[in-house]
Amino acid sequence: MIRMGGTILAALLGLAFGSFLNVCLSRWPEGESVVHPRSHCRHCSHTLAWWENVPLVSWLALRGRCHSCRAWIGWRYPLVELAVGVLWAQQAWGYLSEQSLDLLIFNLHSPERLVFLIGWAIFPWVLTALAVLDAENLWLPDWLTLPGIALGLVCTILRNRRQMELSALSPPPLAPGALYCLYGIFAAAALILLIRWVYWLIRHREGIGLGDAKLMALLAAWLGLPQALLAFGLGVVLGALAAVVLLVVPSARRESETWALSKLPLGTFLCIGGIVSSLWGGHILAAYLRWAGF
Ligand SMILES: [Zn+2]
Fold first, then answer.
1. How close is the Cα of 244 to the center of ligand 1, in Å?
2. The overall pTM is greater than 0.85
3. Cα dist. 87→12, 92, 148, 167, 277 in Å?
4. Which of 61, 94, 109 is at the close of a domain?
């Protein structure tokens, strides 16, 4: 009962925070404030009434068009709201499976656990943000990726300490855990820098941006190096599939002009790979190791 209620609450909160993220994604690239003015249509500046601003429901009721000027709002709005809602619900469902209400309330009183919980809510929110920013603007801002790496490092150290406590081992001293996590962060970034360097040697121009290196570091900080590498593999496969679609289907190329797909935003595919890896990475890697005979 608590698990179901908590999951529904997390889904509703996720929809609301996804809706706020949509405002940020429209205004950040223009350098506008995300608080002021109130939500409005970006075509006719009509200020939205409360009922035009309900996540998902309003978009469906208005069939994706502005109530005032009928301009197409775009698929991004419901997709982002749905993505954050589903990812938060999924996390709450997993988290509440192992928690009694007493333990949950106790956890919320512990600053360490609170940081951990809030961190794991921010992670999918930031990945969704970066995926859209790179798709629409080929832009992975440092002020999202760099704090994301730091928060990931803190949450991973907290998780490792917690796991040691649960397995009745004494928690490890902070330094080696942090060093191991830092090693993963640098190795993931170095992989991208190496590919970037080789590409430059062969083609004499920039193939992969530095933002992608920071994004890989972010994935390694949150997921660990093996799952970050899985995210990279998935991202490259998805990117290659998108490239094939663009080559084979001419109309897809025309439609993708608003989305910068014709330039293939690697960051978007890395973020999708990262979300898949955070949800099922453990199972995928275990299945792969079994298949490879380890
Ligand atoms: Zn309008």
1. 36
2. yes
3. 11, 9, 17, 28, 13
4. 109
